[in-house]
Amino acid sequence: MIRLEKRAEPSQLWSLLTPVVAVITTMIAGGLLFAALGKNPFVAIRTIFYDPLFGEFAFYYRPQLLVKGGPLILIAIGLSLGFRAGIWNIGAEGQYIIGALCGAGAGLALYPMESVLIFPLMILCGLLGGMLWAMIPAILKLKFGTNEILVSLMLVYVAEQLLASMSLGLLKNPEGFGFPGSRNLQDYPSAHNAELIAGTGMHWGVLTAFIAVIFAYVLLKKHMLGFNIRLTGEAPRAARFGGVNPNRLILFCMGASGALAGLAGLFEVAGPAGQVSIDFNVGYGFTAIIVAFLGRLHPVGILLAGLLMALTYIGGDIAQSSLSLPSAAIQVFQGMLLFFLLAFDVLTNFRIRLAVKGAA
Amino acid sequence: MNFTKLLASAALVAGLATSAVAEKTKVGFVYVGPVGDGGWTYEHDQGRKAVVDAFGDDVETVYVENVPEGPDAERVMTQMALEGADLIFTTSFGYMDQTINVAKKFPNVKFEHATGYKTADNVSVYSARFYEGRAVQGHIAGKMTETNTIGYIASFPIPEVIRGINSAYLHAKKVNPDVDFKIIWVYTWFDPAKEADAANALIEQGADVILQHTDSTAPQAAAQAAGNVISFGQASDMAEYGPFPRVSSIIDNWAPYYIDRTKAVMDGTWTTTNTWDGIGPGMVGIGEISDHVPADVKAEALEMVEKLGSGEYHAFTGPINKQDGSVWLAEGETADDGTLAGMNFYIEGLEGDVPN
Amino acid sequence: MDLSAINPVLLVASLMVAATPLLLAAIGELVVEKAGVLNLGVEGMMIIGAICGFAIAVETTSPALGILAAMLGGAVLSLLFAFLTQVALANQVASGLALTLFGLGLSALLGQSYVGIKPPAMAKLNIPVLSDLPIVGPILFSHDPVLYIGLAIIAATWAVLKFTRAGLILRAVGENHEAAHALGYNVVRVRILAILFGGACAGLGGAYISLIRVPQWTEGMTAGVGWIALALVVFASWKPWRVLLGAYLFGGLTVLQLNLQAAGIPIPVEYLAMSPYLITILVLVIMSADKSGAPASLGRIFHASQ
Questions:
Q1: Which of A21, A327, B243, C147 has the most CB atoms within 10 Å of its CB?
Q2: Would strands B110-114 and B123-128 be described as parallel, antiparallel, or unpaired?
Q3: Do the chains contact at B197 and C6, CB–CB below 8 Å?
């Protein structure tokens, strides 16, 4: 009989080791899958994990890791604050959409005026849009005690419908021959979130993600608020005795996560994506939840997890074209990676004991 | 060294490297859906396979499926160009700006963007005159309907779809002045369950012909279940539902164009073009008209196919009024491509408004 | 514009069909959530059910075997979730999302050779006299068997939760797992069984789409029904009969919307489409006064040594 025994303290060793073990296990299981599909497993794994980083065209893919990972990291950092305190905002996808709509809407409303103030205004609108959208579940939770998981999830669908309505209606490009989708903000210099240094993939969103990582790290390590967040998550009763105001904490965590998701949406729509379109959201808000957990809700972990996730997307697309792996195989592979990471995580908090039957 | 130069020289090196190994022409395809969607992407992939069949070892094709419209598409195109693609087909309207962006960085790679309108020195656009096929469908539908009610499952209110509705209505009305169109906008290209519901709603309201501008076979199955309703395949032939309820189909046949353009790259004769092909060059295929269609109707339909193909007849030939009664095309006048490309109005007789 | 074109009898009959996949997935998830587990992988389990059912029905030419295979497929996939959350004690939200990702990918792989094939048809109920009755005939007596199975599952779930000891234990586990454990119930076992039930129901719902309602196989064909099912459970405030009501309301809204369009009545489609979710939030708010709402242990991890 195998038994799990809770560790008094999470194991430092295992918390560093499990991601490595999980990635290696995924490579083995994934290799078997690829072999079953008639592909050389070693080549496939190399294509996904090695080529984007060190292959012939790594100079292009490395910056792309930032482009793809940036929004994931930015959103996941925000979510992790709430998750640590036991506040479950799973509607980041909706906040991302609303942030993009508000930010892009502000920019498009001013078109074709040129001013250095336009982009900062868009940032502000994106931030506020995401934050206010996240405030709905927060305030309903405070006022009525509704479950924020469910309300924030419902609001994702509402946001998706708003996005469809906007790209077919209000924000539709008047010069777009009747096709859905807004003007391309990349062609509107004042509103364009361009690369800060060409060829590096670094745009304002990536920079903001890095700042968020540092900020979250300092907050959780050094700041009273960070201590309260951790305390509330780990020992809610103690936190209340300790004078933590749970309502303020909910407002802060939901607001911060919404604001960051909104920012991610704005930076994406004004930069790499360029326009509001019906399918503008590609699931960053949901993937970021996974990233937050893969990173163990730790800022540095999230940074690495976001980049790892981005790597599997980029490497997966390369494997599709160079090895003709179906995209479904890549999806299964990503699913496996998540499963193994989640499953092995148990070793961080628990010890596995082989109990002799009868003695227990 | 600036980044664009770096990219370009890398591509050049890659190009040299591949050409040193073999004289293969590499063709890339970027797909918006899965190749297993049985509709839009499936047909583009059939086109890719036709290129392989046509050129065998002289060509290498690569594709990436399920590529979201946005930065991912730009990355996938760049990736293909870096890996030495000579020609890249980007097969969704939403890839338009990304195609132009990537094309700027790789002046030696040729790009072909489906259904868009932006061209460049190394970017061509291509699209199909599906409305020609709709004219044939309208004719058959108008002749065969007994309830005089034709149901139309429309996807998004964009010119492409509106053209199809107008063309079908025009030709149904011509042979059956009492015909009435019921239109449902489902706001999706592909959602089998919703398409089934839409088809059922139309059938329950008396439609005995279902036309669809969405890609799944769900409406065919609904027509079959109803028992007295005919339907037309969309995007692919959907022959498995023939000879009844599916009596004919519009097939997206990209193969001739893809082979042609690949050949042009091989021969070094590729130039920027703006292609809008119809039945004539074979880009719009009319699936076999089944024997469920009365012989005389079938003969008329085939004659129309013939005339549309030869250019003797234009699907939008006046007199045609707009919905509000104002004159759009005078007697004998044919529609110009500009108006058709941006078509955002119904013609006279159709009820309701184009949603916006 | 012609409202009279809409036949209310046929409208009701077709909304029952439209609502069935939703109803099946939601009643399964309801039991899972009653046991205190939040499984966000409904969409993944549905699509696995859709392909398993389709493939087996095509291979054996028996829709009934296909239906069984779909339930089995959904349950097997949910076992993965059960292992992660109940044995490895992983976070339920993340595990559920991973399950959906995995299910969508796996179904596409499994289904590669089934695109463009017509499955064997499932016979509809046809009872002499009864099926031919006006009004009640089309509504009550002329559907496919699975639709009735769905209704039976609702009734059975209600009865089991309300009247049986098993239902009492399930609710106890969902309300307060420490107390249930202290009373000697095996919390993990109860939850795993609930998760399996949820998987089987979701699989059945998926197969209903691929075998009966559409019927065809294409990648991603469930198109988000699993997510709506999650909303529906909340809307129903975890009560079986309200799942039925809610499914007909959600399904009915879609069917009605399409019917109104066909009748030539212009409607703002997007705003109508978001209304079920807004109503669900409203229900949550109203329900908050009623303490019998969400299971108290919903989404919380249980470990016996705590």
A1: A327
A2: parallel
A3: no
Q: What pLDDT digit, counting tens, does each position of A205-228 carry?
A: 999 999 999 999 999 888 888 888
Measured between beta carbons, the chain C residues lying within 8 angstroms of B234 are none
Choose the mutation target among A51, A56, A60, A68 for the interface with B, i.e. most B CBs under 10 Å.
A60
- Chain B residues in contact with C221 by the CB 8 A cut-off are 192-193, 216
In a domain, C297, yes or no: no
Q: By C-alpha distance, which of C22, C112, C35 is closest to C81?
A: C35
Please, which chains are in contact with A (at least 3 CB pairs closer than 8 A)? B, C
State the total domains in chain C.
Answer: 1
A293: nearest Cα among C104, C301, C59, B300: C301
Of B217, B243, B278, B289, give the one whose Cα is nearest residue B39. Answer: B217
> Cα separation of C243 and C231, whole Å?
10
Instruction: Find the domain containing C61 and state its range.
Output: 3-287
Q: Residue A164 is nearest to which of B74, B80, B187, comparing CB atoms?
A: B187
CB of C106 less than 8 A from some CB of B: no
Neighbouring subunits of B (3+ Cβ pairs under 8 A): A, C
C-alpha distances in Å from residue C11, one per residue of B52, C105, C145, C214: 49, 35, 19, 17
Q: Which residues contact C100 (CB under 8 A, 6 or more apart)?
A: C40, C41, C42, C43, C44, C226
Contact (CB<8Å) A151/C90: no
- pLDDT per residue over B59-94, tens digit each? 999 999 999 988 999 999 999 999 999 999 999 988
Q: What is the greatest pairwise CA distance in chain A?
A: 79
Q: Would you kindly state where each structural domain of chain B is located, as residue ranges?
A: 3-128, 131-251+285-341
**Domain of A202, in residue numbers:** 67-303
CA gap C183, A227 in Å, rounded: 36
Q: What is the ipTM of this complex?
A: 0.88
Q: Fold match between B3-128 and B131-251+285-341?
A: yes
CATH of the domain at C38: 1.10.3470
B37 contacts C219? CB cut-off 8 A:
yes
Cβ contacts of B216 on chain C, cutoff 8 Å: 214, 216, 218, 221
CATH of domain B3-128: 3.40.50.2300
Q: Identify whether A22 is part of a domain.
A: no
Asked if omega into A246 is within 30° of 0 (cis), the reply is no
Which residue out of A57, A175, A324 would a mutagenesis test of the B interface target, given it has the greatest number of B Cβ atoms within 10 Å? A57
Q: What is the pTM of this model?
A: 0.89
Per-residue pLDDT of chain C (306 residues; tens, 9 = 90+): 566 777 888 888 888 998 999 999 999 999 999 999 999 999 999 999 999 999 999 999 999 999 999 999 999 999 999 999 998 888 888 899 889 989 999 999 999 888 878 888 877 767 777 777 777 777 777 788 899 999 999 999 999 999 999 999 999 999 888 888 988 899 999 999 999 999 999 999 999 999 998 888 988 888 888 988 988 898 888 999 999 999 998 888 888 888 888 888 877 877 777 887 888 888 878 877 665 567 877 877 777 654
Task: Please indicate whether, in this complex, the C-beta atoms of B93 and A179 are within 8 angstroms of each other.
Answer: yes
Query: Which DSSP symbol is given to C209?
Result: I
pLDDT at B17 over 60: no
Asked if residue C292 belongs to a domain, the reply is no
Segment among A120-129, A349-358, B127-136, C31-40 with least mean pLDDT: A349-358
Q: How many domains does chain A have?
A: 1
CA atoms within 13 A on the CB side of A149: 19
